[in-house]
Structures are given as structure tokens and as C-alpha cells.
Write a structure and sequence with these properties.
The complex is a heterodimer. By secondary structure, chain A is an alpha+beta fold. Chain A has 13 helices and 18 strands. Chain A has helices at 10-43, 178-216, 221-238, 249-256, 259-273, 287-298, 301-334, 337-360, 372-460, 464-484, 492-507, 532-553, 596-612; strands at 54-55, 57-62, 65-70, 73-74, 86-93, 102-106, 109-110, 112-117, 120-124, 140-144, 152-161, 169-170, 173-177, 513-518, 557-566, 572-580, 616-622, 625-631. In chain A, the strands form 4 sheets. In chain A, strands 3-2-5-11-8-9 form a 6-stranded antiparallel sheet, with no helix packed on it. Chain A has a 5-stranded mixed sheet with strand order 14-15-16-18-17. In chain A, strands 1-13-6-10 form a 4-stranded antiparallel sheet. Chain B folds into 2 domains: 3-128, Rossmann fold, CATH 3.40.50.2300; 136-219, Winged helix-like DNA-binding domain superfamily/Winged helix DNA-binding domain (Arc Repressor Mutant, subunit A), CATH 1.10.10. In chain B, the strands form 2 sheets. In chain B, strands 2-1-3-6-7 form a 5-stranded parallel sheet, with helices on both faces. Chain B has a two-stranded antiparallel sheet with strand order 4-5. Chain B is globular and about 45 Å long. The chains are: A alpha+beta, B alpha/beta. Chains A and B meet through helix 10 and helix 11 of A and helix 7 and helix 8 of B.
């Protein structure tokens, strides 16, 4: 456990320690229960055939000496290939039994047996590679050919071959009807042969999956290491022990003695997978395994076997203990399912390993049934489950991350939309404000003044024509403002068309004729940049010219001429001329009208308006009448600078 | 024509004048009565309908905003019951918002409320004589609608599909302030045929029945099925 003593929070620290202690206690209790369950399961003996078929009394010829023994029997020698111990026993067969085949059944022996009935060999277990593995508790059965049997006592001889690393062992021998004995044989085969093959297949699949995972995720070496462990395990399971020396025997020996390396790999995986720090001398855990491999490559087979028992088996046990400790620490720290499963598996394997060790040392009478390798499958199941659990959890995390991302993107989008809408709203508000300012100025220039003048006239009492004229002028101006806001597509002629209607209506009561002359059907050039306020200024200029003709000139006829001219550069521009045949007025040298203050102000107004929209205003007046000439610009100004 | 013959010509001409603002009503009534028209005044939709039960007038002049309803209703009813009646809208501004919708139910042009009395009488007389006046701003609105726009333009719905290119040319001329004579000259027409074309334009803009109105709306994409 990590010692994180934070001096600032003694209370919290104590509470955390207590929590961890209680977790550890719970975990240990569970492991104890598992150990108890394992011991209970291991103590239960495997089913045996009826004892009536048991051949119990044997005479053993070993090293020249002959003595009487009862099975189970352990030999003293660890190597007896040259002069194997010979067990001779007897069984009774009756000729009434010819209907049923009889068999010899050997539940457990090590390392190999040759069985003969009445001097004829019927079984040599050394031909069965699986049976040659001393760590597998493989049974053997052989049918006795009926011709070998005769009424009464028959001889059963068993030659026991021992090639280490353990002493020879013969548990028991049954001779009886094949249909009865085979049942027990099948049960043992299922547990000690078929199941390991299944587990090895599972291990092979796991190795492939883990290799793929490691290839795709190089930054997680834990998977690669576990894949290596699995691959080693598979190789060990399927490679036969070489009894006879062959060219591959050394390779086989290396692989078979690789169990400590496999255990070291599993331990490494445990450290990396559970997020522990890699210890400085961590690679030392591979030392026992590598030593064994080296010996297997150069040394004698017997030496290899000796070393395996002396170094390999304890190393495996040590690694299992270390793994159990690491997993326990992880369980206490993280409380996650993967570590818990791995911990339980480690406990099971450790218990079985201890059982096997005690069995080898003959401390417990267990007929030399080895279960460590079998229990390793528990570990495999745990690793498979743990990995799947982690994988599913990672997928869930990815999902929730993706979900969060989608939410965040949506939020950002909404924010963006909102700010865009705000910006649009702001731009609209600004445009509206600008439009309002212009409209206000337009209304102020015309309608406002006229309404004020109506108020003034009505207060003076002499209502009459004055009010009517002012009110009519106000309405006319209102119509002008509304009209000029219409989209005319830059064609000033469209604005002049409605102005003609209004001017004619204004002139008619005064019996002044309006002469409208348009030089070409097109009239004026089209100005795409033309804006309502340009139109208002131009129409007001024309209005003032007409109003002057009505009020001051005493004219009979007003002529409006519209033409398009071409300047020397070849570009077209428009010109509007308003002429009357009235009495005219005299202009001062400064260009001011001499007809009093009001006229002067009117003229100044007209000049202002013309300047604001880039129109050139030309005023001539004389005895023959007044002429106002507006020369339009080729391009109307963009902003209302002069009038600002 | 002398004033006397004007008066005689106007003798048989009955005018139903619908206007809720009393001073405006008096003003228009005076102008028309002095010109010799036989004027019946109504201040509300109900009064106008009551008057219509006695028979159709030669001319209907109506305001649009009435205290008990909309002048558009009155125009549509009158148009259906008395096809011979000439109808005009009385408007303050002569804006397309009110005038165009009145045209689509059968009105022919508009009369400004502040027009001079002589102009009022002259406009009604021209109307009776078969001259349908059309102002430059209304002509402008109509021709702008004949131009294709990706979006439906603002303002009242108006179907210009039935207008011929010649009629559209005439409207362009009016919108730009040309006189009938000038338009006739530009387009190579006889001056006398222009008022007939304008009358046709009015009739083509009219939406006759409810079903037709729906059809027109579909044509213009105003309604989607």
C-alpha cells in the first residue's frame, strides 16, 4: 500500500486507512473461502471402479531384488529406463466371461508403463505423448485379447519406466470387464485430457486476440506480454515430451521447461495491467526461466528435469505469490472487478500449486494427481473475463465521451447561432437606426415644417388659403417620402413619373401648363447606386423649382426637359431642366437671390440639396423666366457627407 | 364642353360615396354635387349596403377603412351584383397597399382625398366616359411585379401573368411619366387605343371568383398545397 501521509489532514488520512483496511479484510476473507473451497474440492477423491477388480498384491523385481508390494507404490529411483522395475500380479478370469471383453485399467502412473498379460505386451504408454507428461494425470486402458486369457489365474506384469524428474509411481491396477472399467477411464480422460485441450484452445484464441490488441495498441505492452505468456502455454501443452532423442528434442525441452518464463510473463502482465510501477530489478523474474532454457539447450535432459523441479517449480510458486500480492493491493486501492477476478484466480492457482508441491513431496497422500496446470485455466477464464470487462468499460467511456463531445459541439453551435443572431440583430438595429435618422431628416425638412406652419396659421386666425396650401404641401411631401422609399431599381425615371402626376396636380388649379419633354424613351441613365435619399433630394429640388414658378414667377407654363448626354470621355449622364416663363429674379454677384431673405434661404437650400447628392445645380434667371438645371453625377455619392 | 353641357351629362350619373370621415365626405360630396352628379353619401358599410338595395349606382367611390368593415368587401359585392358600376377607391396617399388590393376586386384607379374639386369632378367624369386613369406609382408597382424575382416581393398579391408585352410596355411608359401620346408614338400605336389597353389591364388584374383567387395564389406560389 502506498504511504501517502498528508500531514494537513490526519482525520481524512485515518479514515482512508480504515477504509482500506476493511477492504483488505473483506478481500482476504473471500480468498480464504476460495482456498477452503479448493481444498474441499481437492480432498474429494475421484470415483474408483469396484474393488473386486483391483489387483492389489504384486511382487516387485527392482535392481535384481524381488519383494512383495501393495499399490500405490513409489519407486526409490528417479531414472529406470535401462532396468525398469517389474510388477507382477495375478488376476482370475473365468471362461464364462468370453462374452465380454476384459481390460487392464491404470488410473495413474508416472512416467510410463508397459503392460503384459501372460507374458504378452498389450500396452506401452510411451507411445502416447500426452501420457508421457508427468504433470498430466493421464490414465491408460487396454483391452486384453481374449486368446491371451485362460481359466483361473492369469499373470499381469507391469514395467514402470521412470525418467524423472519425479520418482516412479504406480497408483493401482484394475483388471475387469471393459464396459465397467472404461466408464472410469472416460471420466478421468475427460478431466485430465479433454479439458486441458479445450483450455489450450481457449488459450490459443486468447493469444491471438491479445496479439492483435497489442499490434493495434503498441503503447500498451501489457497485452503483448500476456500474448507471449499465452503462446508459450499453448506450445507447452501441444508439444510432446521426447522420450527418444530426436532432432527437436532440445527445442521441446526448452519449451517444456518454459513454464517459469510463462509465469514471469503473467506476473509482468499483472504489474503493467494493474498500473503498478515497474520495479528496477524487475527483469530478474525472468532469470530462473532463462537459466532453465540455457540448461535445456546445452545440458543433459536429466539435469534439466532436476533443475525444473528445484528451480522452476519454486519460481512459479514465488511468482504466483507476488501476483497475488500485487492483485490484492490493486483490489484494495481500486476496487475494480478485473483485479478482483484476477485475485481469485491467483488464489485458486496458488492453492493448487501448493497442493501439487505437497503431493510431490509425498506430504499429503494424494495419489499424485496434479491440478496446478488444470487450475491455470481458472486464471485464463479470469483474464478473459477481466479483459472483456475492461474492453466494454472502455467502449462505454468512448460512448460517453462521444456523447459529451456531441453535446459540447451542439452547445458551441447554439452559442455561435445565438451570437450570429445577436450580430444580425445588431446590424438590423443599426440599419434601422440609420434609416430612421434619414427618414427623420426627410420628414423634418418637409412635412415637419409644413405642419408647424399649419399650426401657426391656424393660431393666427386668418385660416383661409394659407392653411390649405400648407396642408396640401405636407401631404404632397408625405407622398414623396413614401414614394421615394420604393425600390425603383436605380431608374430615376420611375420616380419622376410619379412626380409628374403630383406636379401636374399642383399646377392645374393655378392654370399653369406642365410641358414634359423627354428626349429619348430611355430618359435618364440607370444608376444602380441610387438610394431613396438621393431621390428625395432630387425630387425636392424639382419641387422647389416648380413651387417658385407658382408662387413668385407668375408663370403660364413650366417645362421639364429630361435628357441623357455624353461627356467627352464617352460616359453618359443625365440632365433635368425646369424652366418657367415667369418674370424671373435678379441674382446677386454672390449667387444669392435679391428677392429678400426668404428667397435667399430657398436658394441656399437648393444648393445644399444639390451638393448632398453630387448634383450640379445651375440657376439662371432673367426677364424671360427662370431656369433650374440639374446635371446628375455619373455615380451618386455613397454617403450623405455634405448634409451630415 | 361648357359647364352647362357638363351638368347635363352628369345629370343621370348617380354616385355612391362611402367615407366615414365627415369633413372629407362633405368636401367630396360638395365637389361632386357642384359638378352635377347625383350623390348618395354613406358613412358605414351598412349604410352603403342599404343604399345598394335600391339599385346599383353608376359610380361607387369608397374609402377602404370603414368603421364596420373593409371597403374591399363592398367593392367585391358591388362588382358581382352590378358589373356596370365604375368603382374607385378614395385614398389618402394613393399607395399600392390599398389601391392594388382594390384593383384585384374590381376597382379602377383611385381618387386622392385632397384632390382639388375640379380634379375630383374631372376624374369621375373621365371614369364614366370609359377612360380608366392609372397613376405612375401604381403603374410602377404593377410593372415591378412583372419582373421575375426569386422571392415574392412585399406588398399585396398581384397576378400579372395575363398581361401582354404591349400592355407591360404601356405601363412602363406611364410609370416613367410619359403621356398617352408619347407612349403611342414610342410603341407605334394610335393614341386613341391607349385608354382601351389600360381598361384591359385593369380587367386582367381583377380576380373574379374565389376559385380563381385560389388558382392565382397557387400560380404565384403564395399558397402551397
Amino acid at each position: 500500500m502506498e504511504a501517502e501521509a498528508k500531514p494537513g489532514f490526519p482525520g481524512r488520512e485515518r479514515r482512508r486507512l480504515r477504509l482500506r483496511a476493511s477492504r483488505l479484510a473483506q478481500y482476504l476473507l473471500v480468498q480464504l473461502l476460495i482456498v477452503a473451497a479448493c481444498i474441499f474440492a481437492l480432498r474429494r477423491s475421484l470415483p474408483e471402479p469396484p474393488s473386486s477388480y483391483l489387483v492389489s498384491g504384486f511382487s516387485l523385481k527392482e535392481g535384481g531384488a524381488e519383494r512383495s508390494v501393495t499399490l500405490p507404490h513409489y519407486t526409490s529411483s528417479r531414472f529406470s529406463l535401462n532396468d525398469p522395475p517389474l510388477y507382477t500380479g495375478h488376476f482370475t478370469w473365468s471362461s464364462r466371461e468370453t462374452e465380454r471383453a476384459w481390460s487392464v485399467y491404470l488410473p495413474r502412473f508416472s512416467n510410463g508403463v508397459e503392460v503384459a498379460v501372460n507374458g504378452v505386451a498389450i500396452l506401452d504408454s510411451r507411445r502416447d505423448p500426452v501420457a508421457n507428461r508427468p504433470d498430466r494425470s493421464v490414465p491408460e486402458i487396454a483391452v486384453i485379447p481374449a486368446s491371451l486369457l485362460h481359466d483361473g489365474a492369469n499373470d499381469l506384469t507391469i514395467r514402470l519406466f521412470v525418467w524423472g524428474p519425479l520418482t516412479g509411481f504406480l497408483e493401482s491396477a484394475y483388471v475387469g470387464p471393459d464396459d465397467i472399467l472404461r466408464r472410469y477411464y472416460e471420466q478421468r480422460t475427460l478431466v485430465f485430457v479433454t479439458l486441458p485441450v479445450m483450455f489450450s484452445a481457449w488459450q490459443a484464441i486468447l493469444a491471438v486476440i491479445l496479439t492483435i490488441m497489442w499490434v493495434m495498441r503498441r503503447h500498451e505492452p501489457a497485452y503483448g506480454i500476456l500474448a507471449a505468456a499465452m503462446a508459450l502455454g499453448v506450445a507447452q501443452a501441444f508439444l510432446p515430451t521426447a522420450v527418444d532423442p530426436s532432432q527437436y528434442s532440445r527445442v521441446n525441452a526448452v519449451l517444456i521447461t518454459s513454464a517459469p518464463i510463462e509465469a514471469a510473463f503473467v506476473l509482468t502482465f499483472g504489474i503493467l495491467f494493474l498500473g503498478g510501477r515497474w520495479p528496477r530489478y524487475g527483469l530478474l523474474i525472468f532469470a530462473p526461466g532463462l537459466l532453465l532454457v540455457a540448461v535445456a539447450l546445452i545440458g543433459e535432459q536429466a539435469l534439466t528435469s532436476e533443475l525444473f523441479v528445484l528451480v522452476g517449480v519454486p519460481a512459479i510458486g514465488l511468482f504466483l505469490v507476488l501476483l497475488a500480492l500485487i492483485v490484492a493491493q490493486s483490489v484494495v486501492k481500486r476496487q475494480d472487478l478485473a483485479s478482483f477476478l484476477l485475485g481469485c484466480a491467483a488464489t485458486i492457482v496458488l492453492t493448487c500449486w501448493a497442493h501439487d508441491l505437497l503431493s510431490v513431496l509425498q506430504i499429503i497422500p494424494d495419489d499424485r494427481i496434479f491440478v496446478a496446470r488444470l487450475s491455470y485455466s481458472a486464471m485464463l477464464v479470469a483474464i478473459g473475463a477481466g479483459l472483456t470487462w475492461r474492453f466494454a468499460r472502455a467502449l462505454n467511456r468512448v460512448d460517453s465521451f462521444a456523447g459529451r463531445l456531441v453535446t459540447q459541439v451542439r452547445q458551441a453551435e447554439d452559442k455561435l447561432k445565438a451570437s450570429f443572431a445577436r450580430e444580425e440583430e445588431r446590424a438590423r438595429a443599426a440599419a434601422l437606426a440609420l434609416e430612421r435618422t434619414r427618414l427623420m431628416r426627410d420628414l423634418h425638412d418637409g412635412l415637419g415644417g409644413q405642419l408647424v406652419s399649419i399650426v401657426a396659421l391656424s393660431e393666427r386666425g386668418d385660416a383661409g388659403a394659407g392653411i390649405g396650401d400648407a396642408a396640401r404641401a405636407a401631404l404632397k411631401d408625405l407622398r414623396l417620402v413614401i414614394d421615394s422609399m420604393d425600390d425603383i431599381g436605380g431608374d430615376l425615371m420611375l420616380a419622376l413619373g410619379s412626380w409628374r402626376d403630383r406636379a401636374a396636380a399642383q399646377l392645374r388649379p393655378h392654370e399653369i401648363a406642365l410641358d414634359w419633354r423627354v428626349a429619348t424613351p430611355q430618359g435618364l441613365p440607370v444608376h444602380p447606386e441610387l438610394r431613396p435619399w438621393h431621390v428625395i433630394q432630387i425630387v425636392r429640388l424639382l419641387d422647389e423649382a416648380v413651387t417658385n414658378a407658382v408662387k413668385h414667377a407668375g408663370a403660364q407654363r413650366v417645362t421639364v426637359s429630361i435628357e441623357t448626354l455624353t461627356d467627352p470621355a464617352g460616359s453618359a449622364y443625365g440632365r433635368i431642366t425646369v424652366e418657367d416663363d415667369g418674370k424671373g429674379f435678379v441674382l446677386t454677384p454672390e449667387g444669392e437671390a435679391s428677392g429678400g431673405k426668404r428667397a435667399a434661404r430657398g436658394l441656399r437650400n437648393m444648393r445644399n440639396r444639390a451638393a448632398r447628392c453630387g448634383v450640379e445645380l445651375e440657376l439662371t434667371s432673367g426677364a424671360g423666366g427662370t431656369r433650374v438645371r440639374l446635371t446628375l453625377p455619373q455615380k451618386f455619392p455613397d454617403s450623405d457627407t455634405a448634409g451630415a | 364642353m361648357t359647364d352647362l353641357s357638363d351638368e347635363r351629362a352628369s345629370q343621370a350619373i348617380t354616385v355612391l360615396l362611402v367615407e366615414d370621415d365627415a369633413p372629407t365626405l362633405w368636401r367630396l360630396q360638395d365637389a361632386l354635387t357642384k359638378a352635377g352628379f347625383q350623390v348618395t353619401a354613406a358613412a358605414t358599410l351598412a349604410e352603403a349596403r342599404a343604399s345598394l338595395t335600391k339599385g346599383g349606382p353608376k359610380v361607387l367611390l369608397t374609402d377602404l377603412q370603414l368603421p364596420d368593415g373593409h371597403g374591399i368587401e363592398l367593392i367585391r359585392e358591388t362588382r358581382q351584383r352590378f358589373p356596370e358600376t365604375e368603382i374607385m377607391v378614395i385614398s389618402i396617399l394613393g399607395d399600392e397597399e390599398s389601391v392594388i388590393s382594390a384593383i384585384t376586386v374590381g376597382a379602377t384607379g383611385y381618387l386622392l382625398k385632397d384632390a382639388f374639386p375640379t380634379d375630383i369632378a374631372a376624374t369621375v367624369r373621365d371614369l364614366v366616359a370609359g377612360h380608366s386613369p392609372i397613376s405612375a406609382s401604381i403603374a410602377r408597382f404593377i410593372v415591378r411585379r412583372t419582373q421575375k424575382h426569386p422571392e415574392p416581393p412585399p406588398g399585396p398579391p398581384l397576378d400579372t401573368v395575363k398581361l401582354t408585352p404591349r400592355e407591360i410596355d404601356i405601363l412602363w411608359g406611364i410609370a416613367k411619366g410619359f403621356s398617352y401620346a408619347e407612349i403611342a408614338e414610342h410603341l407605334g400605336l394610335s393614341r386613341q387605343t391607349v385608354p382601351g389597353h389600360i381598361k384591359n389591364i385593369y380587367r386582367k388584374l381583377e380576380v373574379h371568383t374565389r376559385g380563381e383567387a385560389v388558382f392565382e395564389a397557387l400560380q404565384q406560389g403564395l399558397i402551397k398545397l
